[in-house]
Design brief:
Elements lengths: L6 H16 L9 H8 L3 H17 L1 H10 L2 H19 L5 H29 L5 H30 L1 H19 L19 H7 L6 H5 L2 H21 L2 H7 L5 H29 L1 H19 L5 H30 L4 H8 L1 H21 L3 H30 L2
Helix pairs in contact: 1-6, 1-7, 1-8, 3-6, 3-17, 4-5, 4-6, 4-16, 5-6, 5-8, 6-7, 6-16, 7-8, 7-13, 7-15, 11-14, 11-15, 11-17, 11-18, 12-13, 13-14, 13-15, 14-15, 14-18, 17-18
Length: 407
């Protein structure tokens, strides 16, 4: 493969475009009301499809990473795309809850989980000089997706019905991602940009020992990072999953205004992804991660006193901004700690922590509300999890330094 100055930017463009399409799960809730009304399903039964999707999405990540490294990123993407688009198309034929769970939850979830670790880690390998900013821009693509695709999905639902809309979107995803997958090529081992002079820190990162999965899981720092990832994501998803009901029940806003709050949080989430990409390149991983967790914890404590609309907007802006940076910062850190050779599969494995956190956070928040009639205890627990995650970050940093000294 001939490498030119445009090669890595072509890879970035391909990854960004696929990220825009495969973020479709963020607007799956648009199908809830029409499909529940059509088939008489309960909203809780329907929402379980999303929970299954997220679990499968995170659980199969390391398999997608292995496929990307053993075959080629584009091969893993094409395999995942058949499952992802196929799952959406099959969802258009779902007339029972079990069918919905298999089509959307299992098949589409497995497809997205195969695609993700073949894309972001591949892009970051091409940008050792600006891992943070590229991670932020790619993750911003996932945030842009719902903004662009949600109105289109709603228009399709209104015109053709929910099931036909699923089929149309599945075809759109198949064409859209399939058209750019060829652009995503693997970065040769040891490649660096022409004329780039790495800093002392970047030089150390380039010479990091490469750990495969069996070697990685034997390192205590892996388990510390996994638990920290679970805590950090649970702390964020507690609020993200309940923004609308909190706005209505605690602040007394109308359903329409509460929906606006959800949109604003999504917007600040996108800003956080972009901003923390550049912050990462300045502060580096550990300090950036601590900053994210500090902002998240403080914003949760602020929410305990939220009573006015303006103050609530400030709180959710901080929550969205900090939570948006979590994946942006965490992704390149795995490469720094465990090396780039097996990065796709290693990141795919540790990404399971994201799925566990995404499952635990909303459940804890809903449980406290059902028990106490208030979200305050959920905020406090979220702040405690953020504080515990900060402690784990400090421990992981010490462990990583010790690992580097012993190699």
């Amino acid at each position: 493969m001939k490498i030119t100055k445009a090669t890595r930017w072509r890879v970035f463009a391909g990854v960004w475009i696929q990220s825009l399409f495969t973020s479709a799960t963020a607007f799956f809730s648009l199908f809830s009301l029409p499909m529940c009304n059509q088939f008489g399903w309960s909203s809780s039964d329907f929402s379980m499809a999303y929970t299954i999707y997220m679990f499968i999405y995170c659980a199969v990540g390391f398999l997608g990473g292995i496929l990307a490294e053993k075959l080629q990123p584009r091969v893993a993407i094409y395999i995942g795309l058949v499952l992802f688009a196929g799952g959406w198309i099959l969802t258009g034929f779902a007339d029972s809850i079990p069918f919905l769970y298999i089509a959307y939850g299992v098949i589409a979830g497995a497809g997205a989980g195969t695609i993700y670790p073949a894309c972001l880690p591949t892009a970051l390998k091409w940008f050792p000089d600006k891992s943070g900013s590229i991670s932020g821009l790619v993750q911003a693509g996932a945030a842009c997706g719902p903004f662009i695709m949600s109105p289109i999905a709603q228009m399709l639902i209104d015109r053709f019905g929910a099931q036909q809309a699923c089929i149309i979107l599945g075809i759109v995803f198949l064409i859209g991602v399939g058209a750019v997958a060829w652009m995503i090529v693997p970065c040769p081992d040891g490649w660096t940009p022409e004329g780039w002079v790495p800093s002392q820190t970047q030089t150390k990162e380039l010479n990091t020992k490469n750990y495969n999965i069996p070697q990685m899981v034997k390192q205590p720092v892996f388990w510390v990072l996994l638990v920290m990832f679970i805590f950090a994501n649970a702390a964020g998803t507690m609020m993200v999953s309940a923004t609308s009901p909190i706005a209505q029940n605690q602040i007394g806003l109308s359903a329409m205004t509460a929906a606006l709050c959800v949109s604003l949080m999504t917007l600040f989430n996108m800003f956080g992804r972009i901003a923390f990409g550049f912050i990462y390149d300045r502060l580096q991983g550990w300090n950036s991660l601590i900053l994210i967790l500090v902002i998240n914890g403080l914003s949760m404590l602020m929410l305990t006193a939220a009573g006015s609309y303006a103050y609530f907007i400030l709180c959710i802006a901080l929550v969205g901004f900090s939570f948006g940076g979590l994946l942006v910062v965490f992704a390149p850190m795995i490469k720094i700690i465990f090396g780039s050779k097996y990065y796709n599969r290693n990141y795919g494995l540790i990404f399971i922590g994201y799925g566990i956190g995404a499952f635990v956070g909303p459940k804890v928040s809903a449980s406290f509300y059902d028990t106490t009639g208030s979200y305050v205890m959920g905020y406090i627990i979220s702040a405690v999890l953020a504080a515990a995650a900060i402690i784990l970050v400090l421990i992981a940093r010490k462990m990583t330094e010790k690992m580097a000294a012993n190699t």
